[in-house]
Amino acid sequence: MSTGKSKTPSFDLRAEELPANIGIIMDGNGRWAKKRGLPRQFGHRAGAKTFRKIVKHCEARGIKIVTVYAFSTENWRRPEAEVNAIMDLLRSHLKESLLDFKNENIRTRFIGDRTPLSEDIQDLMAEAEASTADRTGMILNIAINYGGQDEIVHAAKALAAEVKEGNLSPDEITAAAISSRLYTEDQPPVDLILRPSGEYRLSNFLIWQAAYAEYVFMDVLWPDFTEEDMDKALMKYAGRNRRFGGV
């Protein structure tokens, strides 16, 4: 007799069927808390636990690069109490992740403009990067005070400065030249953008890198996102026909 519960499909993808580079928009923390009558910061705490769980799962699946959208350039517009709570959570996460990921072969990098962040947070970010710099496994990019448009402006200014100094000709400004001035300068394009929470927007995330990415949107709030949900997203990606503008 059927129990009425749906079964999670078996995961049998080959390495070549998996995306090498994934971007994840960790969305829905606030709504998760509101549904439970809790302050929004409780949702961010729950989301942080999901983040660590999913990162480890991606490493186990053999994903090479994961970029998570932790705090955007637009998130400063949120209520001050919520922003402060997120910053406190970031401090705690950075300290915990130094311990939590110590046995994982994961290299941590941060992308975005660090200058508005407090000095102690910047120091913790630098420590996390330095302590994992020699690791050879999955690269984890954490996007903090990051915006895709801001990143492209940052790259354009760098190119303009090189032209002004006479080190670069305007004719040498190509797509590859712009890519090499982004925060993800040495990384390949994104293969898959994943957004839980039921929203269908890119929200200024990796807009240059995701030019030919596949998108998977899922109607589950980030704190409720599971390893099984991640596998479903990977299987959806594997079923896509990527043509990159061809036929």
Ordered list of secondary-structure elements with their pairings:
Layout (H helix, E strand, L loop, with lengths): L20 E5 L3 H7 L4 H22 L3 E8 L7 H21 L6 E5 L7 H14 L6 E8 L1 H17 L10 H5 L12 E4 L18 E4 L9 H12 L9
Helix pairs in contact: 1-2, 2-3, 3-4
Q: Mind explaining what this structure looks like?
A:
The chain is of the alpha/beta class and 247 residues long. The chain is 40% helix and 14% strand. The protein has a 6-stranded parallel β-sheet with strand order 3-4-2-1-5-6, sandwiched between helices. Residues 1-7 have low confidence and may be disordered.
List keywords for this structure.
247 residues, alpha/beta, 6-stranded parallel sheet, 40% helix, globular
- What does the main sheet amount to? 6 strands, parallel
Distance between the termini: 46 Å
Round the Cα radius of gyration to an integer and report it.
19 Å
Order of strands across the biggest sheet?
3-4-2-1-5-6
Mean pLDDT: 91
Structural class: alpha/beta
Shape: globular
Taken as a percent bin, the fraction of beta residues is 5-15%
Number of strands: 6
Number of helical stretches of at least 4 residues: 7
Helicity level: 25-40%
Element order: H for helix, E for strand: EHHEHEHEHHEEH
Q: List segments where confidence is low: pLDDT < 50 over at least 5 consecutive residues.
A: 1-7
